[in-house]
Amino acid sequence: MSASTSSLLELRQVTKQFGETTVLHPTDLQVERGEVVCVIGPSGSGKSTLLRCVNFIAPPTTGTIVFDGEEYRPPKDHRWIPALGIPEEQRLTRLRTQVGMVFQQFNVFPHLTVRENVALGLRKTCGLGKKAADARAVEELGKVGMAEKAAAYPEQLSGGQKQRVAIARALALEPKLMLFDEATSALDPELVGGVLQIMRDLAAGGMTMMVVTHEMRFAMDVADRVIFMDRGGIVEQGTPEQFKSPQHERTRAFLKSIN
Ligand code: ADP
Ligand code: MG
């Protein structure tokens, strides 16, 4: 299945429901290659849901996602045909490896060393042997300043260091898109800057990124486009410059509330 779009990512009328509740109203969105999109909005507005739909961690209820020229549809479209369900799962697995995600709560594996955390995906997904995966893992850790902690366990690390490991683990799989869901919200204030700097460097290196953040300075500096969400939908989007004078009252109220 392929679809003609030059964008890296396209959402067409994507929705997400939990039972009777619609948490993401029909949403259209395109993300270009190399673009950095920052997503802002109040708690509960659907920011995490939007990101989780993109990589099918929370599959959309309806709509279509086109990623790198491949079309993906909600599982309900193939759920009843097991013979089709298996290859679809394989396609989704591939999609997920091409879309790296970093969460607020780190999600590093506590029982694995830092090196093993990064090497695991390289072995399972890229099929590298242990030695090659370990070497690549240390290389990736070096890029985020964590090589010397390769033998440590997550509990021995600060939140900022855990988040660097999570970033290295995602980047090791050479994703085409990186999703950051409030990656710095759980960090002590003095550790936020270091993680944001890694994200800035990644953006400057041309990575396509969707970043849910409350760090407005980061969004204003780094984003090509800012999206404001409220009540399960995109209310307004534009360049950081345009967000200096928002069009919608809800956007103005939100920006005022976080400043
Ligand atoms: P945000 O990230 O902007 O804070 P979320 O995307 O996490 O918002 O949540 C949007 C809405 O969806 C919220 O009202 C939340 O309670 C609801 N929601 C999220 N996940 C689930 C779930 N698994 N089951 C039911 N409701 C959910
Ligand atoms: Mg969230």
Automatic annotation (TrEMBL):
Principal subcellular localization: membrane
Location within or outside the cell: Cell membrane
Bilayer topology annotation: Peripheral membrane protein
Limits of the ABC transporter domain: 9-256
Keywords: Amino-acid transport, ATP-binding, Cell membrane, Membrane, Nucleotide-binding, Transport
One annotated Gene Ontology cellular component of this protein: plasma membrane
CDD domains noted in UniProt: ABC_HisP_GlnQ
Cross-referenced InterPro entries: AAA+_ATPase, ABC_ATPase_HisP-typ, ABC_transporter-like_ATP-bd, ABC_transporter-like_CS, MetN_ABC_transporter-like, P-loop_NTPase
GO molecular function, one term: ATP hydrolysis activity
Similarity comment text for this entry: Belongs to the ABC transporter superfamily.
Family matches, as PANTHER family: AMINO ACID IMPORT ATP-BINDING PROTEIN, GLUTAMATE_ASPARTATE IMPORT ATP-BINDING PROTEIN GLTL
Name of the protein described by the UniProt record: ABC-type polar amino acid transport system ATPase subunit
Originating species: Conexibacter arvalis
Source organism phylogeny: Bacteria, Bacillati, Actinomycetota, Thermoleophilia, Solirubrobacterales
